[in-house]
């Protein structure tokens, strides 16, 4: 027992030392507080849109603006395109990125609309490697509360969320699957995929 | 959809008893990939069969489950719908407690027992989730999760007829869970059927209430099979606490030039 306790204590101390020595290098740009601040602001805006009772289209436009403001949109678009991104031209990438933002706002905006009467509440934040995980709880009528998680990084030089999990379901992976399947269905035709993204739900 | 299977509990039980032995042998023998996996990884050696089942399930949804679910949500007032859901969920709690205990989670068992007591008494037989008002939220558990805690590997992905996405481990768990609820041994037959009916109604109601979300996966995605598979596996692993998905994708790793 003593051996394990001592090992645990050593581990704790070295972890503490590592934290204190490492934190100053990263904390200046992004830390627990600023990651939480970003998600607080993001969740506040989403809650306001949900509660506004606007028309579907007006809500989608709001979500698109929120996504562009708080999201690392170029990373999310690049991840969704996956390996196909390597053979895409810059013009295709640019067009895809723009269409993808509209698509994602419409798609996830529709999901958030089902939150009407519900709300998101920020719970906790923790560092993960060089980024941060912010956990929120979604409260919906007649449902057990569930977890919506945002991952935040300062990759772009500004704090942005680059991934979202709803009950563990990963936005990046889900969209990479979707975009990959769309490209496959079109015989590898990226332009056709981009054109059809406009009508995709 | 588990409850659909339970409409005739005696028959279902006999069938699962017979199924259980081979299923356990199957589980012990089932292949698993050797490399460490991340939350998005998929082990799907039966994909061809699974895709056939998926088409069957989709046809069943189009013809029956979706229209009934949407109609149900439209006709039944929200409050009543919530109560039916609460009632059936409450009846399932004793089975959850059994699994909490099998996993050595005494705290979870205690919390769920408190929920059951509160909701059965103050909540009028479980019609109202008063425990939630006291911030006593369910600590979910099922036998598939118990197997995970015991160290049984996930096995291959399988899509079950009617019941939908599953894994080999989760499927065995569902079969065993037909026996784990003590209430099913205590309640007389007619009351038991009320619970079963409420369970089916609540599942069907969910199909209607979240119609758009379910539709977006089943009918609007480019490949609904792989989308349903990915969503199920990620969600299931999240519920089990298996792996840390937040660590797996490094935003600094990808070239985003041009996007």
Q: In short, what is this structure?
A:
The complex is a heterodimer of chains A (201) and B (259). Chain A has 201 residues and is of the alpha+beta class. Chain A is 59% helix and 18% strand.
Structure description:
The complex is a heterodimer of chains A (201) and B (259). Chain A has 7 helices and 5 strands. Chain A has 201 residues and is an alpha+beta fold. Chain A has a 5-stranded antiparallel β-sheet. The relative contact order of chain A is 0.14. Chain B has 259 residues and is mostly helical. Chain B is built from 12 helices and 2 strands; from the N terminus they run αααααααββααααα. Chain B has helices at 2-5, 9-29, 47-75, 78-102, 106-121, 130-133, 143-149, 168-180, 183-186, 189-209, 211-218, 224-240; strands at residues 157-160, 164-167. In chain B, β1 and β2 (164-167) form a beta hairpin. At the A-B interface, α4, α5, β3, β4 and β5 of A face α4, α11 and α12 of B.
Present the secondary structure layout.
The complex is a heterodimer of chains A (201) and B (259).
Chain A: H1 2-27, H2 32-52, H3 56-70, H4 73-81, H5 90-113, E1 119-128, E2 131-139, E3 146-153, E4 160-166, E5 169-170, H6 171-185, H7 190-197
Antiparallel strand pairs in A: 1-2, 2-3, 3-4, 4-5
Chain B: H1 2-5, H2 9-29, H3 47-75, H4 78-102, H5 106-121, H6 130-133, H7 143-149, E1 157-160, E2 164-167, H8 168-180, H9 183-186, H10 189-209, H11 211-218, H12 224-240
Antiparallel strand pairs in B: 1-2
């Amino acid at each position: 027992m003593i051996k394990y306790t001592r090992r645990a204590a050593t581990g704790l101390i070295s972890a503490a030392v590592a934290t204190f020595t490492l934190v100053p290098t990263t904390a200046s740009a992004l830390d627990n507080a600023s990651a939480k601040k970003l998600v607080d602001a993001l969740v506040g805006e989403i809650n306001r849109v949900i509660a506004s009772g606007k028309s579907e289209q007006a809500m989608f436009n709001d979500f698109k603006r929120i996504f562009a403001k708080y999201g690392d949109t170029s990373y999310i678009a690049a991840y969704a395109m996956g390996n196909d991104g390597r053979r895409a031209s810059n013009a295709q990438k640019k067009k895809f990125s723009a269409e993808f933002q509209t698509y994602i706002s419409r798609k996830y905006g529709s999901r958030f609309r089902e939150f009407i009467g519900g709300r998101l509440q920020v719970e906790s934040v923790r560092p993960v490697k060089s980024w941060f995980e912010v956990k929120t709880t979604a409260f919906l009528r007649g449902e057990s509360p569930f977890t919506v998680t945002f991952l935040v990084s300062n990759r772009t030089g500004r704090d942005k969320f680059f991934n979202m999990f709803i009950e563990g379901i990963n936005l990046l992976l889900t969209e990479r699957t979707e975009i990959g399947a769309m490209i496959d269905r079109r015989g590898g035709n990226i332009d056709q995929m981009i054109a059809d993204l406009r009508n995709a739900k | 959809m588990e409850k659909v299977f339970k409409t005739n509990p005696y028959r279902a039980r006999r069938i699962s008893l017979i199924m259980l032995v081979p299923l356990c042998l199957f589980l012990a023998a089932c292949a698993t990939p050797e490399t460490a996996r991340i939350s998005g990884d998929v082990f799907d050696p039966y994909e061809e069969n699974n895709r056939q089942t998926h088409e069957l399930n989709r046809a069943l949804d189009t013809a029956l489950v979706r229209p009934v679910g949407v109609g149900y949500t439209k006709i039944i007032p929200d409050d009543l719908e919530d109560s039916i859901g609460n009632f059936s969920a409450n009846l399932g709690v004793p089975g959850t407690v059994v699994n909490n205990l099998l996993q050595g989670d005494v705290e979870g068992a205690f919390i769920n027992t408190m929920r059951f007591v509160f909701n059965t008494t103050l909540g009028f037989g479980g019609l109202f989730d008063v425990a939630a008002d006291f911030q006593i939220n369910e600590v979910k558990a099922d036998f598939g999760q118990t197997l995970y805690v015991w160290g049984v590997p996930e096995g291959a992905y399988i899509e079950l007829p009617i019941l939908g996405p599953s894994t080999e481990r989760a499927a065995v768990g569902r079969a065993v869970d037909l026996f784990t609820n003590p209430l099913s041994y205590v309640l007389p037959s007619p009351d038991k059927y009320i619970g079963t009916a409420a369970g089916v109604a609540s599942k069907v109601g969910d199909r209607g209430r979240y119609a758009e979300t379910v539709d977006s996966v089943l009918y609007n995605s480019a490949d609904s099979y792989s989308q349903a598979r990915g969503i199920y596996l990620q969600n299931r692993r999240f519920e089990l606490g298996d792996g840390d998905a937040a660590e797996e994708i490094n935003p600094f790793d990808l070239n985003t030039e041009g996007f």
